[in-house]
Amino acid sequence: MGVEGRDRVKAIEAGASALSGQLGRTVQRLRKAYNLSLSELSEQSGVAKSIISQIERNETNPTLSTIWRLSQALDVSIERFLQSSEDEPFLEKSTKADTPILMSDDGKCRLAIIGWINTVEWLQWYDFHAEPGGVLESDPHQRGSVECLSVLEGELEVEVAGVVETAKAGETLRYRCDRIHVIRNRSQEPAHATMVCMLKAAVME
After folding, report:
1. Which helix (H) or strand (E) holds 20?
2. Burial classification of residue 165, based on how many CB atoms lie within 10 Å of its CB (0-12 exposed, 13-18 middle, 19 or more buried)
3. Contact 66, 56 (CB under 8 A)
4. CA dihedral sign of residues 200, 192, 134, 158
5. Which of 34, 111, 38 is nearest to 75 (CA)?
6. What single-letter DSSP state applies at residue 58?
7. Cβ–Cβ < 8 Å for 136, 130
8. How buried is residue 174: exposed, middle or buried, by Cβ count under 10 Å (0-12/13-18/19+)?
């Protein structure tokens, strides 16, 4: 084999290694975004836990069948699963049908998850609507987390650890959300806001 042949093999091996590394990072990111353990992803995909672990650590080159099973379990097309975004222009669109919606227990508050799945472990953001009388009570997030509620229309009240503050359109409330926090619409008009949650903000003593 000539030098050109050896170089070609090296290039192919380097490309395969890069693709495998990208795949491992993607699997781990999506698994954590869906809050799945290795065992849970293994159960849902039919891929052995040890193989998934090796893929995430870039210690194996998975078969196409394995990649397909993981992509199905993580609800991502195989094309998106394999593509690398490091050296390509990035422009992504989410349609209304792609946007998950969460409802409060009283059915009067609606949270549209407009944040990017790539940042879900440390940054989340939502489009928030509250009907008159609507109440959204949330459990504590991880220690040091901070939430920002920017009111676009109407008026909203936030209560954290017994402290209550209100904000009108054009105003923003920032508060620790590593304890129970409640958002209320006490007015007679609907309210609209954007909500950003920073899950790895500096711990505030």
Report:
1. helix 3-33
2. middle
3. no
4. positive
5. 34
6. T
7. yes
8. middle
Give CA–CA dist 120/49, Å, rounded: 23
Question: How is residue 193 written in tokens?
Answer: 């806001």
Q: Angle between the 49-56 and 3-33 helix axes, to the nearest 10 degrees?
A: 120
In three-state secondary structure terms, 74 is coil
* pTM (2 d.p.): 0.58
Residues of the chain below pLDDT 50: 1-4, 8-9, 11-18, 84-85, 87, 203-205
Among residues 122, 120, 124, 145, the alpha carbon closest in space to that of 33 is found at 120
- Would you state the structure tokens that stand for residue 170, as one six-digit string? 């054009």
Closest by Cα among 138, 147, 135, 151 to 185: 135
* Domains with residue ranges and CATH for the chain: 3-82 (1.10.260.40), 96-198 (2.60.120.10)
